[in-house]
Design brief:
There is one protein chain. This protein is an all-alpha fold. Helices cover 83% and strands 0% of the residues. It contains 13 helices and no strands. Helix 6 runs antiparallel to helix 7, helix 6 runs antiparallel to helix 11 and helix 8 runs antiparallel to helix 9. The N and C termini lie far apart (112 Å).
Length: 325
Amino acid sequence: MSTQFAADTMTPVCAALLCAGAGLWRIGDRDDPVRRARLLLAGAESVGSDPAVRRRSAGQRPRADRLPARGEWLVRRCRAGLTRLQGLGHALWCLPLGVLLGLVGRSPLPVALGALAVPVAHRHLARRAARREHDRRRDHVIALCASAAAELRAGRQPGQALVLAITETVPDAGPGGWGDAGAAVLAAARYGGDVPSALREAARLPGAEGLTGAAACWQVAVEGGVGLAAGIERVTAGLRGQRDQQRELSAQLAGTRATALMLALLPSFGLLMGSGLGADPLHVLLHTPVGWGLLAVGGLLEWAGVLWTARIVRAAEGRRADDDR
């Protein structure tokens, strides 16, 4: 009796579930032709003229179609974030250093300071990398001019001499490379193009300013028949003189930079000395209001000292550059 009652009760439920499933399948199957028409006949009038299709394309899309788009957006955002993190490079070492100091001092303040130091360190490292790239490209220009002058002295034609000099001295890619500007100069020299204009375009790259002199020598030699090798040799000698003066100035300022770095690190040595004597200066700086004030004032004074020293060095370099001109 109970078994028959249970069977009679489950029959309507199963029928309702089957009807609901068939209805859902029908709805999903009704969207499939529209989706296939969009993929196969994109932009066709027969698809765009259907009001139902226009309503669905205007934003009334099924939830199953919206979820992949949101997932793709999330994946793109994650990839962009990872790319930015990879671009920070060695500046990310400020984070584990801040975490280490936070564990030693049992305070979240060093962690926050380490996170704030990441963009500052990244900017400093980017300037240093740009400076190194500038110097490498300047050395490539000097080598290019010297090689071109040697090839011209050996009796080669100007275009052929420039092609050989570029292939021997200029890297195709990597730090200090010329990229599209180098390819344009090479094409102009190889196929008889406007070499002075290509050299002036390449001279816009940081560190390649010496190519302006080579372009002027090339133009004068082509238009007036003046010896090109002698002019490029003079340009090479001038660029080498400027490089030697800059290196001499950097050597003279190395002592000033070392002194500034030592003075900037003195507070760290003071903290280590205080910890060795048992005074626990980290607890005072990180867990007391007085220590917070002292840390803020000391950080500001430290920052001002570093900026002042950097300004002195830049002023000395600028003054020497003006004297060289």
